[in-house]
Amino acid sequence: MKILLSNDDGYLAPGLNCLAEELATIADITVVAPDRNRSGASNSLTISCPIRATRAANGFIYVDGTPTDCVHLAITALMEEPADIVVSGINAGFNLGDVLLYSGTVAAAMEGRSLGLPAIAVSMEGREPAHYETAARVVRLILAQMMQDDLAALLPANTILLNPAIKVNSCE
After folding, report:
1. pTM
2. I need a surface site. Which of 2, 33, 64, 130 has the fewest CB within 10 A?
3. pLDDT tens by residue, the chain, 172 residues
């Protein structure tokens, strides 16, 4: 499996780095992400000036553009072999409700989908390394199941998976 990984928090974001490390254990990954935090960029494209792609020391490619620019450029020009799926995240913060309209994390996944690829956007609240690690493991397990079953979609949209150690109070 070939995974295109992006985000809206920038190529140095801990969520992206944790996810890249985890997914590299099951697939070939290409990381193309913004050069800095582009949270709230929505589906915007850069049209007023050229955008540049640069390879970082860690092998990631960073782009001086929006998350949508990153995915579009990766799929149409940068990747030598086509991706099988786009994964965007792990976003530092929930992307729920109206926020979905503005989320660069969700926009990166939507751009992949608009270019014909299955896509997953991953967001979470909290910035603890253990939270990123748990989210990354869950994504790896989902993708491993997809690879095994050759499924285009495994879970319904807006599925929430919780760490069993997290206690949720009843609203009753």
Report:
1. 0.86
2. 130
3. 999 999 999 999 999 999 999 999 999 999 999 999 999 999 999 999 999 999 999 999 999 999 999 999 999 999 999 999 999 999 998 888 888 899 999 999 999 999 999 999 999 987 787 889 999 999 999 898 888 775 444 555 555 555 555 555 555 5
User: What string of H, E and C letters represents the secondary structure of 84-120?
Assistant: CEEEEEEEECCCCHHHHHCCHHHHHHHHHHHCCCCEE
Tokens of 71: 């995915």
- Domain ranges in the chain are 2-149
Query: By C-alpha distance, which of 85, 83, 77, 31 is closest to 57?
Result: 31
Owner of token pair 């490390």: 21
